[in-house]
Specification:
43% of the residues lie in helices and 13% in strands. The protein is an alpha/beta fold. Among the domains are: 7-95 and 259-343, TIM Barrel (Alpha-Beta Barrel), CATH 3.20.20.80; 100-253, no CATH class; 367-510, no CATH class; 587-670. A hairpin with a 4-residue loop joins β8 and β9. The longest helix is centred in the last third of the chain and has 31 residues, at 672-702. It is globular and about 100 Å long.
């Protein structure tokens, strides 16, 4: 397998299609990219902005250019020596009527040929939670009527633009008392069989092709639609029930993707479903058009290991396969997964250790325990509310698995035991299966049992039973039921962890936003350079071929925004004073009636504003207006994700308006006192943040792993959370060489040129970066804590990365370079058992004299970071 040298993540849709991607290829070549890394390209719901709501796995989306456009893109990539990696989505599909498989399930119910494709509990009618209110309320408001779907040629309930197909078994009831003109349609309806759905559809098409028949049908349906009691009875005849979207948390018969009712879980563990959903993409791999696959949300699958074994067998040993997997601190990727690594969230966490001041007073002695309590509270809230329907399902399964001689219990006690067991999970999920439990999973289950029983001793017996059933089927009368419980438990635990930490707790905690990132541990505290080196050595050993990410479509903020927010750890008192001062300045913009925004929200808004603030001064009111709009959109999302005073399922629009009104006021062009003070205070944080950005960029390009560049982030990336980070962008030409003695205005050129310089060097030294040892290098002297260095080394090659850190108090206005005086009497120590060599600094073109103690001032002369190779 030819490993990627570097990937470039491109988000299709939102104006990006295959034709425009072809135009980017020369830019990617100049950067040194080896593989385009594409977001999902298969047909998705009309108007989709991301492509994860797939409606047809076997069609490349025509809106992107279809198969012909994709083939042209691949041809152009290969003509320039580039490959392509596709993002695939095995966990879910769109629960949308544009999805022909889902439409069939809605129409025919459990007898549909596709009923087994989706993770549906068929012991109850299929719930369709897409109404604004209950069916009865919407019917009373005349928003539901009968109609003929001329695209699908079927009878349906019409609700706005959606046409929900009626089960053909109910057609006779609909057509009762119709005119003789519809006799042909009645005859077809009486012969309907789900085993020959195509013949039924053809019969309907033939029966209504005459204009007079179609007109008679429309007239009959219009008349029948006035009979509301009949429509209620007809609704009860269906294999599905239309319900309010607000009830999905309590009553839902299918597995969702997280909390999104519009995405239905797939049973990809079924070999037939695997083949049906992977036919097209594996055909592209086998034809040599696609070089690699990125597996979305691997933890949502029933049996990730089994899925990956099947995928690897079909894709072949040559395919590069990575998984989207959140690894908690010290959690390894399962060794038996036949993959090349992850999408790289854990690399972002490692950079946090490098760029955050480990001596900061931000983390108190009780930080960890307070965080654990807060996260548990978030988990329990989600389990009691957002995921209540999933808990009910698990409760029912668990109750059925009780031993006959077990003490009596009730549903609420068992539900509490389920909630407490999942809330105690220290990782996203275990990987228990019919093959048994690994030692790692047994240990985790033991920890869950102990912690959950300590937190809720009143349901200790139920918790103990749950842990026993998760560990093994031994002694269980119904092994199939036990397997279903185990699978559902594991699929839910990952969703709860993700939503509780990333999408709840991280929006409640506003004191240090740099730590609130996808893949970060909630109770993280900085470990400094030593922990960073430890993680990189581990990465070199365990996952040298995984991606190294700094920005993705899922990160909470852009990499350069995060880099400057790390600087707050260097001067928390300075930032706190500023926040207090701004609070006084902006008190008039608070909304006293709604007591908004609260102090914690105001803190979050100021830090978010720091991350998004432009490098230079805001020169025009239009520029400020654009920033204000972005911040207001972000604020509403952040408040709803926090789930404190407003949420997605119960929005408090008055409260949200108060917060966005506050932002509108403080970011008004005439509010000069605040704007000028904020810009003046932010300036040193921004300057230090730019140096952090160059440090993290160089580290990503040279540390273990394969560098991943998110679209547009080769330049300044100050984006907020999606959809802000999916805005369009235009590439800029790269400089032929790095600016020497760069100023702040040179930053974007410096960053892009640095990427091109290092990636093109990687092309010439593939063995060094694929197999080279990772060796930390010591820095000695008074400024030792302000730098980090490491060597990559094979028997015949080596390179050295040296970067500054914690430089807030040493940045000069207008300059990107650090003063030489900072590095007085500070040296990089050459390893004892390594022969000294004359070194060339690729960033400057200058040489560094070979010696055991190399002056840091010499290394950083002319540019803020250094990449040294034998000269």
């Amino acid at each position: 397998m030819s490993l990627p040298n570097a990937t470039y993540r491109l988000q299709f849709r939102n104006g990006m299609d295959f034709e425009k991607a072809v135009g980017l290829i020369p830019h990617l070549v100049r950067l040194g990219i080896s593989h385009l890394y594409a977001s999902p390209i298969f047909s998705a719901v009309s108007g989709s902005t991301h492509g994860y709501d797939i409606v047809d796995f076997n069609e490349i989306d025509p809106t992107l250019g279809g198969l012909e456009g994709f083939a042209r893109l691949v041809g152009e990539l290969k003509a320039h020596g580039l490959g392509i990696i596709l993002d695939i989505v095995p966990n879910h599909m769109a629960a949308h009527l544009e999805n022909s498989w889902w439409h069939s399930v809605v129409e025919w119910g459990q007898s549909s040929a596709f009923a087994g494709y989706f993770d549906v509990d068929w012991r109850q009618p299929l719930t369709l939670p897409f109404l604004g209110a209950s069916f009865e309320e919407e019917l009373a408001a005349a928003k539901i009527r009968l109609a003929f779907d001329r695209d699908r040629n079927c009878l349906a309930f019409a609700y706005y633009d959606a046409l929900y197909p009626l089960n053909p078994a109910s057609y006779p009831a609909v057509l009762e008392g119709c005119s003789s003109a519809l006799n042909g349609l009645v005859a077809v309806a009486n012969r309907a069989e789900s085993t020959d759905a195509a013949a039924f559809r053809a019969g309907i098409t033939s029966a209504v092709e005459m204009l007079s028949v179609a007109a008679a049908l429309d007239e009959h349906l219009q008349r029948a639609s006035t009979d509301k009691p009949f429509l209620e009875r007809l609704h009860q005849m269906q294999s599905w029930r239309l319900t309010s979207w607000k009830t999905a948390r309590d009553h839902l018969s299918y597995r969702r993707f997280f909390e999104i009712a519009g995405l239905v879980g797939l049973r990809v563990e079924d070999p037939a479903v695997f083949e049906a959903t992977h036919r097209c993409v594996l055909g592209l791999v086998e034809a040599g058009l696609v070089d690699g696959l990125r597996v979305d949300h691997i933890d949502g699958l029933a049996d990730p290991e089994n899925y990956l074994l099947r995928l690897r067998e079909r894709a072949g040993a040559h395919a590069y396969i990575i998984v989207e997997k959140i690894l908690e601190a010290s959690e390894p990727l399962p060794e038996n997964w036949p993959v090349d690594g992850t999408t790289g969230y854990e690399f972002i966490s490692a950079l946090a250790d490098l760029l955050t001041d480990e001596s900061s007073e931000l983390w108190s002695d009780g930080h960890r325990s307070a965080t654990e309590r807060a996260v548990t509270e978030c988990k329990l809230q989600l389990l009691s509310h957002n995921f209540n329907t999933e808990v009910k399902r698990l409760t029912g399964l668990a109750t059925c698995l009780r031993d006959d001689d077990a003490p009596p219990t009730d549903d609420e006690r068992m539900a509490e035991a389920v909630r407490r067991s999942i809330a105690a999970m220290p990782v996203y999920r275990t990987y228990l299966s019919g093959r048994g439990a690994s030692e790692r999973d047994r240990q985790i289950l033991g920890e869950i049992g102990s912690e959950a029983r300590a937190a809720a001793p009143e349901v200790g017996a139920e918790i103990a039973m749950i842990v026993v059933r998760l560990k093994s089927n031994d002694g269980c009368a119904d092994r199939q039921l036990a397997a279903q419980f185990r699978t559902r438990f594991q699929q839910l635990s990952g969703a709860v962890m993700a939503k509780a930490v990333e999408d709840t707790f991280f929006y409640r905690r506003g004191d240090f936003l740099a730590a609130n990132e996808v893949g970060a541990a909630a109770d993280w505290t900085p470990g400094g350079v030593d922990r960073f080196h430890e993680k990189m050595r581990e990465r070199a050993s365990r996952s040298p071929t995984g991606l190294s990410a700094t920005s993705t479509h899922d990160t909470k903020r852009g990499e350069d925004a995060r880099a400057r927010l790390h600087v707050i750890s260097e001067a928390p008192e300075l930032w706190a004073d500023a926040v207090g001062r701004w609070g006084d300045m902006n008190r008039a913009h608070h909304q006293p009636a709604s007591e908004a925004p609260e102090a914690s929200v105001e803190q979050l808004l100021y830090q978010s504003l720091l991350g998004a603030w432009p490098i230079g001064s805001l020169r025009h009111e239009k520029e400020l207006s654009s920033l204000r709009e972005r911040m207001e959109t972000f604020a509403v999302k952040a408040l709803r994700e926090a789930k404190l005073r407003t949420s997605w399922d119960a929005p408090d629009e008055q409260y949200e308006a108060a917060v966005t009104g506050f932002l509108h006021g403080i970011l008004g062009w005439r509010n000069r006192e605040f704007l000028d003070d904020f810009e003046r205070t932010a300036a040193p944080f921004i300057r230090a943040g730019l140096i952090n950005s160059l440090s993290q960029t160089l580290v990503k390009l040279t540390a273990p792993g394969i560098p991943d560049i998110y679209q547009g982030s080769e330049r300044l990336d100050l984006s907020l959370v999606d959809p802000d980070n999916r805005r369009g962008y235009s590439p800029h030409p790269s400089l032929s060489e790095l600016p020497q003695g760069p100023t702040i205005s040179d930053f974007e050129d410096c960053k892009q040129a640095l990427i091109g310089l290092c990636l093109n060097y990687r092309h010439r030294a593939t063995i060094l970066f694929a197999e080279g040892e990772y060796r930390p290098l010591r820095v000695q002297g008074p400024a030792a804590r302000h730098a980090a260095a490491f060597m990559r080394r094979t028997e015949n090659e080596l390179c050295i990365t040296v970067v500054p850190r914690l430089v807030l108090r040493h940045v000069d206005a207008g300059s990107l370079s650090l003063p030489a005086g900072l590095w007085r009497d500070t040296y990089l120590l050459w390893p004892e058992n390594c022969e000294t060599k004359q070194l060339l600094n690729l960033a400057t073109g200058g040489t560094v004299e070979s010696q055991r103690r190399i002056p840091m001032a010499e290394i950083f002369r002319g540019f803020p970071v250094a990449f040294l190779v034998p000269g």
